[in-house]
Amino acid sequence: MTHAQMPDTEGSKKTKLKPAHPDAFYLTDRQTGARYGVCRAAIWRWIQNDANFPKPIRLSPGCSRWRLSDLEAWEAAKAACHVAA
Gene3D superfamilies given for it (predicted)? Predict the structure, then answer.
């Protein structure tokens, strides 16, 4: 369907989307690396070397993602350790 063929939706009822649950947000290894300013290989090394770093969720073979809420909890735990030190 081209733009000219799209039906007019101005008169249709607009529905509000419910906010997604925080656990519903997933990041790729590239996005996770970008969040911390490291390459994606560093993220995989962190999994091997840091027992506290969140493990990825395997969605399918070759498709692993990190829950944003897990990463935020890990960040908060690291910040609490630095404050207490």
Answer: 1.10.238.160
**CA–CA distances in Å: residue 84 to residues 76, 77, 81:** 12, 11, 5
Q: Are 67 and 73 in contact (CB under 8 A)?
A: no
Q: What is the residue type of 82? A: H
CA distance 38 to 12: 46
Q: Quick one: pLDDT at residue 38? A: 98
- 3-state per-residue secondary structure call for 48-67: HHCCCCCCCEEEECCEEEEE
Q: Where are the alpha helices (DSSP H) in the chain?
A: 29-36, 40-49, 68-84
DSSP 5: G
pLDDT tens string 58-82: 999 999 999 999 999 999 998 888 7
Residues 57 and 67 sit within 8 Å (Cβ to Cβ): yes
